[in-house]
């Protein structure tokens, strides 16, 4: 079950499953700051709250002291994206949360994410994507060997062409012997 609140500067997405045994709330903020280029706006994931019930038996078997717990983030600044764009990231990202159950470590693993909490032009339509730094780096790592291979191939072709042209131009010239002992046969 999903629901949310959309505002101009604050938005919230709430996802619940297994009859509300698990609830994930994502809080977004839209902010602006002054730069040398003027006012720039961006949005970010500002807070996460995850509520889980250890008495639910699907994921927790034989839990000690089963009850509801809450894990949340503090002063989070994730998924930072320029205003008017959607955030896209195929790579896996990990966000650690602090739980009320001190025996449990809670981590939120995000992968294949596409989200846009503000400036939505139409239902089910994302604006231009802003790729996460990990995806940008992976794309560069994939294309860099291709670019270097093309440059190396081009250098080899140019070198062979220059050698071929030089060989054609010098092939018809009379070769003057450099060894003086061969001069007596000339003439």
From TrEMBL:
**Protein origin, superkingdom:** Eukaryota
The entry's cellular-component GO terms read: dendrite; early endosome membrane; endoplasmic reticulum-Golgi intermediate compartment membrane; growth cone membrane; late endosome membrane; lysosomal membrane; recycling endosome; synaptic vesicle membrane
Transmembrane feature ranges: 144-165
The Gene Ontology biological process terms listed for this entry are: establishment of protein localization to organelle
The membrane topology of this protein is: Single-pass type I membrane protein
What keywords are assigned to this protein? Answer: Cell membrane, Cell projection, Cytoplasmic vesicle, Endosome, Glycoprotein, Membrane, Signal, Synapse, Transmembrane, Transmembrane helix
Q: Which residues form the signal peptide?
A: none
User: Where, subcellularly, is it found?
Assistant: Cell projection, Dendrite; Cell projection, Growth cone membrane; Cytoplasmic vesicle, Secretory vesicle, Synaptic vesicle membrane; Early endosome membrane
Q: Which residues form the Lysosome-associated membrane glycoprotein 2-like luminal domain?
A: 2-120
Q: Return the PANTHER family for the record.
A: LYSOSOME-ASSOCIATED MEMBRANE GLYCOPROTEIN (PTHR11506), LYSOSOME-ASSOCIATED MEMBRANE GLYCOPROTEIN 5 (PTHR11506:SF35)
Q: What does this protein do?
A: Plays a role in short-term synaptic plasticity in a subset of GABAergic neurons in the brain.
Q: Which family does it belong to?
A: Belongs to the LAMP family.
- Its recorded name reads Lysosome-associated membrane glycoprotein 5
């Amino acid at each position: 079950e999903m629901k949310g609140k959309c505002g101009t500067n604050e938005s919230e997405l709430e996802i619940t499953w297994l009859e509300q045994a698990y609830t994930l709330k994502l809080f977004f903020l839209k902010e602006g700051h002054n730069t040398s280029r003027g006012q720039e706006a961006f949005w970010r994931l500002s807070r996460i709250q995850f509520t889980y019930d250890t008495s639910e038996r699907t994921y927790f078997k034989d839990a000690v002291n089963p009850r509801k717990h809450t894990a949340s983030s503090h002063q989070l600044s994730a998924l930072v994206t320029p205003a008017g764009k959607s955030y896209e990231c195929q790579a896996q990202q990990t966000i650690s949360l602090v739980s009320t159950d001190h025996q449990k470590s809670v981590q939120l693993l995000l992968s294949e994410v596409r989200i846009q909490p503000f400036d939505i032009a139409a239902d089910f339509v994302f604006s231009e994507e802003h790729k996460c730094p990990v995806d940008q780096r992976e794309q560069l790592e994939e294309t860099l060997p291709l670019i270097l291979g093309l440059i190396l191939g081009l250098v080899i072709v140019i070198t062979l062409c220059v050698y071929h042209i030089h060989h054609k131009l010098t092939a018809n010239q009379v070769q003057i012997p450099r060894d003086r002992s061969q001069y007596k046969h000339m003439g």
